[in-house]
Design a protein that fits this description.
10 helices; single chain; globular; Fructose-1,6-Bisphosphatase, Chain A, domain 1; alpha+beta; five-stranded mixed sheet
Length: 263
């Protein structure tokens, strides 16, 4: 098995550099906000954070490629760092602390290293293939694992947003899932995946996601014991959808979401 310890150490330092840019701008009175071509928002903090990550990568991994939300793709796609400088920009610009930087290293499209840093919460999660999933607050790092819940009746899920599911044509599916499980909430963005990795949820699913929206969460969820696929069950981060579960219930959620194709 490939040793990704050096890459993980770098990813954690990239997160430090990102936090140094993003956190001082959080809830700032002079935060600069503009609208991109796709009508989503971007702040000066998004741009500065991605620039800081790219600068460090240029110094330490000049042969690696980068795929970032704000400045696109450059270099190799064999070893590619996939970056979302601020996942949850809408929260960031409204002063809601549920946002974070997502940093992943993918080898031939498969995320092998992932770091999620949410400095407004004082939280960070990380994983590398074969090394487990970890988190820390002010104390020592502790390993995280997905839950042992084995029944849909006892499962808690995060659906991200009603509009997202409706736009994807899956609102009836969402209602079917909500009716079947114990509890449904829209925690939103990357935080929901981290709650899943910590065993506090059993399913997270969303649509219209790019690689940088989910890549860093993939190794964290998988190393915590969970399963991460597209909404249709494919092992890819390029399908514009996601289904992450505690692993035990993955097939049950797929069957619930796609009853006509799985029966």
């Amino acid at each position: 098995m490939t040793d990704f310890s050096d890459d993980l150490e770098l990813a954690l330092r990239l997160a430090d550099a990102a936090d140094a840019q993003s956190l001082p701008r959080f809830d700032a009175a002079d935060l600069k906000i503009s609208t991109k071509v796709d009508r989503t928002h971007v702040t000066d903090a998004d741009l500065a954070t991605e620039r800081a990550i790219r600068a460090l990568l240029a110094d330490e991994r000049p042969g690696d490629g980068i795929f970032g939300e704000e400045f696109g793709v450059e270099g190799s796609t064999h070893r590619q760092w996939i970056i979302d400088p601020i996942d949850g920009t809408a929260n960031f610009m409204r002063g809601v602390p549920l946002w974070g930087t997502m940093i992943a290293l993918a080898i031939d499209g498969v995320p092998q290293v992932g770091v999620v840093s949410m400095p407004a919460l004082g939280r960070r999660w990380w994983a590398a293939t074969g090394s487990g999933a970890w988190t820390t607050t002010d104390a020592s790092p502790r390993r995280v694992t997905t839950s042992a819940v084995a029944s849909l009746d006892e499962a808690a899920v995060s659906f991200q947003s009603i509009t997202q599911w409706a736009d994807a044509g899956h609102l009836p599916t969402l209602l079917r899932v909500a009716d079947r499980v114990w509890r449904d909430r829209a925690y939103g963005d990357v935080y929901a995946y981290m709650l899943l990795a910590e065993g506090r949820l059993e399913m997270v699913a969303e649509f219209d996601v790019k690689e940088y929206d989910i890549a860093a969460a993939v190794p964290i969820v998988r190393e915590a014991g969970g399963t991460f696929t597209s909404f249709d069950g494919a092992d890819t981060i390029s399908d514009r959808s996601s289904l992450a579960t505690n692993g035990i219930l993955h097939e049950a959620f797929l069957a619930l979401a796609h009853p006509l194709t799985t029966n």
